[in-house]
Amino acid sequence: MPHSDEQGSLGAKELWRPSSREKTQIYDFMSKVGQKYDIPLKDYNALWQWSISEPAKFWEEIWHYTQIKAHRPYKQNLLYPANAPDENDVAIIGATEADREFISWKELRERVRQCANALKEAGLQTNDRVAGFVGNHANTVVAMLATTSIGAYWTGVSPDTGVHAVLERLKQIEPKILFADHASLYNGKVHGSHAKVREIVADLPFLEVLVVFETAKDVDFKFEGVRPANGKVVTYNDFQSAVQNESASLEFASLPPDHPVYILYSSGTTGAPKPIVHGSLGTLLQHKKEHLLHCDLRPGDRLFYFTTTTWMMWHWLVSGLASGATIVLYDGSPFRPFDVEGGNGEMAMPRLIEELQITHFGTSAKYLSVLEQAALNPSKHAHRPVSLSTLKAIFSTGSPLAPSTFEYVYASIHPDIMLGSITGGTDILSLFCSGCPILPVYKGEIQCRSLGMAVTAFDPAGNDISASGEPGDLVCTVPFPAQPVMFWPPGPKGLEKYRKSYFDVFGPNIWHHGDFVRVNPVTGGVVMLGRSDGVLKPSGVRFGSAEIYNVLLKHFADEIEDSLCVGRRREGIDSDETVVLFVKLSLASPLPCQSSRAGFSPSFAKSSVLVMFLASSILVLRSQ
To answer: Is 105 helix (H, G, I), strand (E, B) or coil?
Structure first.
């Protein structure tokens, strides 16, 4: 039920309080744990304290409650969840700006079987790598599940990523097979990918097979120039139809619990992005804990997160299958145009929620702030208003959700939902702090520190200051199963990268994440204050200054003598970080600012375009 008249500590204003705590899965879990161990668990904070003080018992109970099947690998738990829906129920809804696709559990399993057989006949083996230069559509999920069923590792990069950034990642892991979309539909326009794919394939000498998804109509995608030097190129349909044993059953490789399933990448702050390898059991256990307990996700619910395949939230979304939920994939602009209705497309996602009866909607803080600035009220829109009656929760991440946006959501989007501002990272492929269906929502606060995650705030000397309400570095003081299994490459080199990334600040037993936070000692909520390291996060897009510098060095070495890339966020003025690039132009070859900015387009992700570009013949650097 909505609340707006109560104040928590440190000025936290209560906006919502759950009305049916006893009906949630987390309440059921808390009751069962309390009875089994004969301990008084009266509220969430008591449960959280127990989960971090008794981690072995806690994770054992999570194992039993989530009903993960130990004899089944990660992908089998997704395709055959414990609370399995009817095989004819919808498992995946794939949506674009133009089309809808409804895939049953039975059809999904069959498509994975066909793709897995094709991959095996192409020579894919356990521990090989498969990459996807692909959008957020159903065939991407099928390819990932088929890949991991064999024991190979999956890595995804969105087609809007620049060629330079793609190669910085893929050249390190050397994929044997690459899936690629031949085009994408975005904001009403079809964008062909032939030029990008040609450049990518040309710089991957170890690639054996390029499989092309035909993702848009009437696109001229010629195979000339995209064939791997030592391999072949084939359409996805031909890739599957060429299988010799068409009736081969779907088999799942039996592998160790920490066998890799995903490779994601660090931001590239200190050089090339580091490949972060995540294991199957830790990922599955963590995601099911978050979905069942923190999101109250159930069979029959419809989970949607607006995400690209690069972002960690894609993997989090796909794991919703393991809870028996229907996952909704959307590939396109969140503000697709509505010519007959005018405006800037702000109603696109609310209408998608209404049309597809989405129960759990995830997005970025930036998206919600855009709706706030437009003063959008979906239920009072002049053209085809929507009630959003199926909506149970909204999740926001990528950057801190502004306090005013909290109030906007309850005033204009829906008065009685759980607004889960959440935070975690690519590094753990999950959440440190999350929503909670048995806790109130306070303005500007993430509801809680996640179960099993011993999150606290440290001052520079390594003292726990969370009880004081003072800001500090986000750290985790107890191990958790979703830690990466390794950094690529395997061996001492990757291990050293791993250690330096998280355990170099406060010692070998304290995970240092790089976020600056404040814990409310009364509500237990967490306030995100930004990054404490050099990572840039405009609009939630996480990348490092080194990626900018690498593009400058490659394309503008003669024109730009020196540069400095920084993030700016003015207290009380800016709700998001602005990326500013200062460049010192070479006197011998001055370059207009506009051409320098344009030069970033083909080499860097369009979602990471610089907001401010300042050029001068002088660049003064001072140490502080």
So the answer is: helix
Pick the closest to residue 261 from 136, 128, 169, 170 (CA basis). Answer: 128
pLDDT the model gives residue 6: 41
Q: Which CATH architecture has domain 535-616?
A: 2-Layer Sandwich (3.30)
Q: Which CA distances in Å does 177 have to 158, 170, 260, 333? A: 16, 11, 17, 28
Please give the structure tokens belonging to residue 65: 């409650």
Specify the DSSP class assigned to residue 446: B
Of the candidates 173, 133, 180, the one whose C-alpha atom is nearest the C-alpha of residue 153 is 173
For residue 489, cis peptide bond before it (omega within 30 degrees of 0): yes
**Do residues 361 and 394 make contact, with C-beta atoms less than 8 angstroms apart?**
yes
Supply the pLDDT for residue 288. Answer: 98
| Number of CB atoms found within 10 A of residue 495's CB | 13
| Mean pLDDT to the nearest integer, 349-368 | 96
In which band, very low, low, confident or very high, does the pLDDT at 607 lie, cut at 50, 70 and 90?
A: very low
90-119: b (≥16 Cβ within 10 Å) or e: bbbbbbbbeeeeebbbebbbebbbbbbbbb
Chain segment 155-176, per-residue pLDDT in tens: 999 999 999 999 999 999 999 9
pLDDT of residue 601: 52
**2-83+280-453 and 90-263 agree in CATH topology:** yes
DSSP, residue by residue, 492-547: HHHHHHHHHHHSSSS-TT-EEEEEEEEE-TTT--EEEEEESSSEE-GGG--EEHHH
| Domain residue ranges of the chain, discontinuous segments joined by + | 2-83+280-453, 90-263, 535-616
Task: Say if residue 34 is exposed, middle or buried (CB neighbours under 10 Å; 0-12, 13-18, 19+).
Answer: middle
Tell me, what amino acid is at 552? L
pTM of the prediction?
A: 0.85
DSSP 319: G
Name the residue among 146, 198, 191 with its Cα closest to residue 167. Answer: 198
Token match 């394309």: residue?
A: 555
Residue 350, CB-side half-sphere exposure with 13 Å CA sphere: 23
Q: Topology of 2-83+280-453 in CATH?
A: Rossmann fold (3.40.50)
Residue that the structure tokens 């498992």 belong to: 91
Which class is 90-263 in CATH? Answer: alpha beta
In this predicted structure, the answer to whether residue 25 has a pLDDT above a threshold of 80 is: yes
